[in-house]
Amino acid sequence: ALADYYQSHGIKVGILSRGYGAKSAVYPRRVNGDDNAAEVGDEPRLLAIRSQCDVVIDPNRARGAAYLTEELQCELIICDDGLQHYALHRDIELVVMDDRKVGSGYL
What we know:
Blueprint: H1 2-8, E1 13-17, E2 29-31, H2 37-40, H3 42-51, E3 54-57, H4 61-71, E4 76-79
Parallel strand pairs: 1-3, 1-4
Antiparallel strand pairs: 2-3
GO biological process, one term: lipopolysaccharide core region biosynthetic process
InterPro entries: LpxK
Enzyme class: transferase
């Protein structure tokens, strides 16, 4: 929904993921909907299919973000599970959660 909103307002959005479980030979790697999920991860592949955004996987999030901005000219990067990666520059952090409690239930 966030990617769709910003794209509809003319902002080029990229999605960055670690690509958990991916077995790519090259990083950063741009993900396409027809990629093998074993190579790029199932979630990044699904994001590429559904979002119509540039999706990049890279265990080194800062390098992946640089690829999105410098090579693919993305203006906004949405990180899949990226809050703990302090090497990433941020202008804003947004956490989306469902109604399940986290930790001790007091957060």
